[in-house]
Task: structure prediction
Amino acid sequence: METTAMKSITPAEFARLDHAALIDVREPYEVAQVSVAGAVMLPMSSLQEHLAELPEGPCMSCATRARAARA
Result:
């Protein structure tokens, strides 16, 4: 299996990407506090069950980047 290093991008860089999907891997209680417009919420706790739903080359988001890196 090929792996790639996680790359951080700014919101402006993300906005310039064609067909990019932003996947928010935070838990529902975290999203209730602060949400990201346009992000698809797919909590890390259920990510494994929904891998087939992920688009090609998704951008992952979380509060501290730790879960995004694991995802």
Observations:
- The chain has a mean pLDDT of 76.
- DSSP finds three helices and three strands in the chain.
- Helices lie at 11-15, 28-33, 66-70.
